[in-house]
Design goal:
Length: 117
């Protein structure tokens, strides 16, 4: 069963505290899906505060772990995307430096475009 479904089928005796933890964790998952990393961090910070004063039941821990794994996977994907972009940017920069050297410019000479900025 997907975590979103479990979240909607909370037992009526679930405490407000438990519902709040589930909601914060679901919000973190949704924010991660949208790439809103500051919101993800804030949700986990708030969840951590709520966990300080209450015991964690195994069923709740299992449910929250499913969300946490989804968030971790999204973080890993975002990290890979950023690394890929950095590699591509490095290649482009190296190509531009090659063009500059072919034009007789040293790497320390700033192009006119940089001087105007």
């Amino acid at each position: 069963m997907k975590p979103e479904t479990r979240n909607q089928q909370l037992p009526s005796n679930a405490t407000a505290w438990e519902q709040n933890l589930r909601a914060l964790t679901a919000q973190a998952s949704q924010a991660a899906e949208l790439g809103q990393w500051d919101q993800v961090e804030e949700c986990y910070r708030l969840r951590g505060e709520h966990l300080l004063d209450h015991p964690m039941f195994p069923a709740l821990a299992t449910d929250l772990t499913v969300f946490d794994q989804e968030v971790a996977a999204r973080i890993a994907n975002a990290r890979l995307a950023v690394q890929s972009q950095l590699v591509e940017t490095t290649k482009i920069r190296q190509n531009l430096q090659g063009v500059r050297s072919w034009q007789g410019l040293s790497e320390t000479e700033r192009p006119l475009m940089d001087q105007l900025a």
